[in-house]
Amino acid sequence: MRNKKDQWASKLGFILSSAGAAIGLGAIWKFPYMTGMNGGGAFFLVFIAFTILIGLPILIAEFIIGRGAEKEAVSAYQKLAPKTPWSFIGHWGVVGAFLLMSFYSVVGGWVLIYSVVSIFGGIIRGGANYEQLFADITGNPLITITGLAFFMLINIIVVSFGIKDGIEKSSKILMPLLFVFFIILVLRSITFEGAMDGIRFFLEPDFAALTGENILYALGQSFFSLAVGISVMVTYSSYLGKDVSLPMSAGSVSIMNIFVSLLAGLAIFPVVFAFGLEPAEGPGLLFMVLPEAFSQMPFGELFLSLFLLLFLFAVLTSSFSMLEIITAAFTEKKGRSRGKVAATAGLIVFIAGIPAALSSSTLADFHIFGLTVFDATDFLVSNIMLPAGCLFISLFIGFKMDKSLIRQEFHYSTGMNPGVYSTWYFLMRWIVPITIIIVFFGSVGLI
């Protein structure tokens, strides 16, 4: 059993921190623009189906692996399957977290910059062109790299303090506030003239428009928004006591994730259609829509500043989890100082993130398979590494990990009908891996 100081202080703290790790940019930033680029309502429904039937079972599995081993990601697989190649899943997760954080932190830098500029009243202006404002900010190398640097500095400081004193305390205060502000934004957005067109786009599915590629993106989005596939949740659950129900915790995180994705869609798309914006705008969609929406409210700049600060926190809670898996892998196994490892890892991620930060400026014309460095890294992580990681985890749970330990961890503090476990295990052993394989190979025309 881990030392008490290395454990979560409460069930609520663990759930909110896990939700923070899951929600972040996945639900608030990426989900709206991915939905806009992939057909609206049909994409949303497929995303929900994948989240419940594939993402949730994998989230439970990562929780079981982490608490069952009481080790961070790399050591967990080594302990549960000693002297076997299965430990590569942990290494896969560390590499995935590193690549994900390298472009994720660029967006975190954008949010940080917008937050600072908004505090000084520099976002909402009469007749402002918010598309041009976004282009000006992301197209300035000095601004984007500065935002990336400060974003990484915040991550290093918080992760250096550890689980209880760093990540958990902040999550318990600020995550609920984000929900409140999102609901306020939704209530305003749906009252704009023309808002119903956006609601219909978001909630009325047109399955005829779906392609294999859209379905792969929906699968990748469900993994991205739940933070599964790179063993982040293995590391988080390794700090968890036995008095917490893993299925109930995973269910709470998944429900919150779907709910925030719904709120994000209802906040963004009514404004998009009301003001004649393009739903398939891409990564900048949120940064163009939020100022437009808040500019139509009394004290709009103040509320925009508060929302951006809460949004920044949600982004940080996700990035904390990524830096934590890297830090924990080298701290626990090698016995090194947490602060030094976090600082070193953060510096390396910062350097690796610079090409992605310059993808809208200096390196805009540099492409990898037709994609900028930012988009190529996003595609690699979201649509290849996360699905592959989830496939590996499902095979590990279904065919390698000790079944008695799996059952034991599943049933701790649960009180569920035994049939729930049987259903989940069947999903993990057969449905999850087969679905991932079919969707992935179907998207590239091999099935």
Automatic annotation (TrEMBL):
A Pfam family this chain is assigned to: SNF
Superkingdom assignment: Bacteria
Topology within the bilayer: Multi-pass membrane protein
InterPro entries: Na/ntran_symport (IPR000175), SNS_sf (IPR037272), YocR/YhdH-like (IPR047218)
Keywords: Membrane, Symport, Transmembrane, Transmembrane helix, Transport
Location in the cell: Membrane
Residue ranges of the TM segments: 12-29, 41-65, 86-113, 142-161, 173-195, 215-234, 255-277, 297-320, 341-359, 379-399, 420-441
NCBIfam families linked to this entry: Na_transp
Recorded family membership: Belongs to the sodium:neurotransmitter symporter (SNF) (TC 2.A.22) family.
Name of the molecule in the record: Transporter
Native species: Virgibacillus sediminis
Biological classification of the source: Bacteria, Bacillati, Bacillota, Bacilli, Bacillales
